Amino acid sequence: MGSTATREELEAGRGYEALFVPAIFEPWTKHLIDGAGVEESSHVLDIACGSGVLTRHAFARSGQSGRVVGVDPAPGMIAAANELEPNIEWILGSAEALPFDDATFDCVVSQFGMMFFQDRQKAAREMFRVMKPGRSLAIAVWNSIEHNRAYGDIIAVLDEQVSTAAGDALRMPYSLGDPDEVINTLSQGGFSDIEFETRAEQAKFPSSRTMVEAELRGWLPLFDINLSEEKIADVLVKSDGKLSKYAAQSGEAVFPTSAHIVTARKAQ
Ligand SMILES: C[S@@+](CC[C@H](N)C(=O)[O-])C[C@H]1O[C@@H](n2cnc3c(N)ncnc32)[C@H](O)[C@@H]1O
After folding, report:
1. From ligand 1's centre to the CA of 46, what distance in Å?
2. In this structure, are residues 67 and 37 in contact, taking their beta carbons and an 8 Å threshold?
3. Which of ligand 1's atoms lies nearest the C-alpha of 73?
4. Is the N or C terminus of the chain more exposed, i.e. has fewer CB atoms within 10 Å?
C-alpha cells in the first residue's frame, strides 16, 4: 500500500467514504464499469480512486481471476480504502506518474478526479501508456454548474455570505463541464474512438445541513478558507432557505446531478 496517513488524514478519508460516497459518488460506478468494459478476469486501474468505491465495484466484477488497482495521492483516502477492502492493491501515486509498465491494464477508469489533475495532458499520456492496445478507458466528470443546481445554490450563498474565493472553491469540481476539453485532452494523449454521454443520477444526503456543513468544514479549509463558528452558523441558516426545495419528507436532501461519461480506446 505504501501509505502513511496521519490520524487526521485517515479520519478525513473515512468521513468522505461515510458521507459523500453513498450520497453522490456510488451511483456513477456502474457507468464507468460498463463504459470501460470491465468483465471477469479484467486487469483494471482506477485512477483518483479516493476511498475506493469504483475500485471495489470493479473488483466485484473482475473477480478473483482479475487484478484491480486503485491509485490516489491522498494518504488518508488510500488508508480508508485499504481498511474497507485489503484484497485490492492500493497505491499512493498520481495520475501524472503512474507506477506501472506499459500495456499493463485491460481497463482504466477514473471518476470525478480529472478536474483535480495538475497536468491533465500528462495524465492522459500516462493512461494511454499503461493500457493494453485494443482496450478501453472510461472517465466521469461533472457537467457544468448550471446543470448541477443544488451545488449552484450553495455557491450562490457562499458568494454572498463568505467570498467569491469560497464560491470558486466549490465551482472547481465543475470546471470540466465542457466535454470537448476532456475529449481534446484524451485525443492528444493518443486515444481514439472517443465518445461521451451526459447522464443524470440522483444524489441523496442525510440533510442539506449535513451536506453544506461538510463543505464548510471539510472542503473550504483545503483552500485556506477557515470560517468562524459564527460564520458557519450564518451560512447554514442562509443555505437552509435556499436548499429547502430539495428536502424530502424524510428530511433528506434529494436532487439530480449531471455528469459526462467519456469513453475512449487505445487502437490495436
Ligand atoms: C472527488 S474525489 C473522487 C474519488 C473517487 N474516484 C470517488 O468516486 O469517490 C477526487 C480524488 O482525486 C484525487 N486526486 C487529486 N489529484 C490527483 C492526481 N493528480 N492524480 C490522481 N488523483 C488525484 C483526490 O485525492 C481525490 O481522492
Report:
1. 10
2. no
3. 25
4. C
Interatomic CA distance for residues 246 and 156, integer angstroms: 16
In angstroms and rounded to an integer, the radius of gyration of the C-alpha atoms of the chain is 18
98-117 pLDDT, tens digit each? 999 999 999 999 999 999 99
Class of domain 1-142+176-203+258-268: alpha beta
Residue 84, all three cell numbers? 474497507
List every span in the chain annotated with CATH 3.40.50.150.
Answer: 1-142+176-203+258-268
pLDDT per residue as tens digits for the range 107-166: 999 999 999 999 999 999 999 999 999 999 999 999 999 999 999 999 999 999 999 999
If you average pLDDT over every residue of the chain, what do you get? 97
Q: Which three cell numbers stand for residue 224?
A: 485556506
Residue in 46, 116, 122, 175 to alter for ligand 1 test, most ligand atoms within 8 A of Cβ: 116
* Whole-number percent of the chain with pLDDT over 90: 99
Residue in the structure block whose three cell numbers are 458557519: 232
The structure's pTM equals 0.97
**pLDDT band per the 50, 70, 90 thresholds, residue 3:** low
Query: From the CA of 87, how far away is ligand 1's center (Å)?
Result: 20
Cell of 243: 436548499
24-77, pLDDT tens digit by residue?
999 999 999 999 999 999 999 999 999 999 999 999 999 999 999 999 999 999
Is 25 a pocket residue for ligand 1 (Cβ < 6 Å)? yes
Q: Which three cell numbers stand for residue 162?
A: 463568505
